[in-house]
Design brief:
Blueprint lengths: L2 H14 L1 H11 L3 H7 L6 E3 L2 E4 L11 E4 L4 E4 L4 E3 L1 H9 L4 H11 L15 E4 L2 E10 L3 H9 L4 H7 L1 E7 L2 E9 L5 E5 L2 E5 L5 E3 L5 E5 L2 H10 L6 E4 L6 H8 L4 E5 L4 H14 L3 E3 L10 H26 L1
Parallel strand pairs: 13-14, 13-15, 15-16
Antiparallel strand pairs: 1-2, 2-3, 3-4, 4-5, 6-7, 7-8, 8-9, 9-10, 10-11, 12-14
Helix pairs in contact: 4-5
């Protein structure tokens, strides 16, 4: 083979194959123990070549989730499945899409992919008299923000897969918050002390190819639905405000069934009535699931608190019997 041709082929291979291959290989070598620790999961028991956990993505009392540190593989005996770090990421974010799994591992491990732009400055955006300056959108990694969401019942795995971290300047001071993107490039933002929107305001569609769409009032309700396992494998639409209901029609018109998880208040009821008028029997009111609660997130927090109380009572009962 002529020397020049070989050199050109070698350069082409380096440009097209090696960078992504190297990133994938590096991610594969991330210890699964470290990956789980980043997500707040720690082993219950260690043996010669096995580290045992309670399953990190489902409820269980007896540890049945095994990690082999030497091979860097995991196996969930309760589910009868296992694999490498990417397969584990797929269980957390409930997807078989490899590129989505890679993106999740990269973001959680602080290894953004080459095509990922870690910072996007947008100058000044104004909304309701508030000016957001020097806006930056990053992967959600801030521990204070993840802790805030955990207090609301949202697992870090679900938060990181669906949200970003926003940093911005307002009135000369620097702030950060959880950011949830919409269809027009704007963001709903939230932290323990502030709730707002970086314009433009719009709805957010999260498609998965289903004929069923689950409608949520805010992104915290959507994250709660994911935490509760509601609508797995189905499409979701977040209004980001009941005032956006009309903007959702262009998406909802094409669905065979529309499940609504709106707030149990006057604004939620009015929006439900408007959707019912337009879609008739295709629309279902699912608020009965969280009856007695204002919204789906309050129901999630109540459910988790009840589980914790039950678990503590069972532990007390066992200790008394012993």
């Amino acid at each position: 083979m002529p020397h020049g041709v070989r050199d050109r082929r070698q350069v082409h291979h380096q440009l097209t194959c090696e960078p992504m291959e190297t990133e994938i290989d590096r991610m594969k070598r991330i210890p699964i123990e470290d990956f789980l620790a980043r997500l707040g999961h720690h082993p219950v028991q260690r043996r010669a070549n096995a580290v045992w956990y309670r399953s990190p993505y489902r409820e269980e009392k007896t540890p049945s989730f095994k990690v082999n540190p030497e091979k860097n593989l995991w196996y969930d005996f309760g589910e009868g499945k296992g694999g490498n770090i990417f397969a584990l990421a797929g269980e957390f974010i409930r997807t078989d899409d490899f590129l989505t799994q890679v993106k999740y591992v990269a973001e959680m491990s602080g290894m953004p992919l080459p095509e990922h732009e870690p910072r996007q400055s947008s100058g000044v955006r104004q909304a309701g008299g508030q000016s957001f300056e020097n806006v930056e959108i990053l992967p959600l990694q801030n521990r204070a923000l993840l802790h805030y969401l955990q207090e609301r019942g949202i697992p870090s795995a679900i938060a990181v897969a669906n949200c970003k971290e926003i940093r911005y300047t307002m009135h000369g001071k620097r702030y950060f918050a959880v950011a949830f993107g919409n269809g027009s490039g704007g963001y709903e933002i939230r932290n323990p002390f502030f709730k707002g929107c970086v314009p433009p305001k719009d709805v957010t569609l999260l498609p998965s190819g289903s004929t069923v769409c689950n409608v949520h009032e805010g992104f915290m309700d959507y994250l709660s639905a994911r935490a509760l396992g509601i609508g797995n494998g189905e499409d979701h639409l977040v209004l980001n405000s009941v005032s956006n209901a009309a903007k959702a029609f262009r998406y909802l018109d094409g669905y065979g069934r529309i499940n609504c998880y709106l707030d149990n208040d006057e604004a939620g009821r009015r929006t439900l009535e408007a959707l019912g008028t337009r879609y008739g029997e295709r629309m279902s009111d699912c608020s009965g699931i969280y009856g007695g609660c204002k919204d789906l997130n309050e129901h999630l927090q109540k459910t988790l608190a009840e589980r914790l109380t039950q678990h503590e009572n069972e532990k007390k009962s066992k200790s008394i019997k012993m």
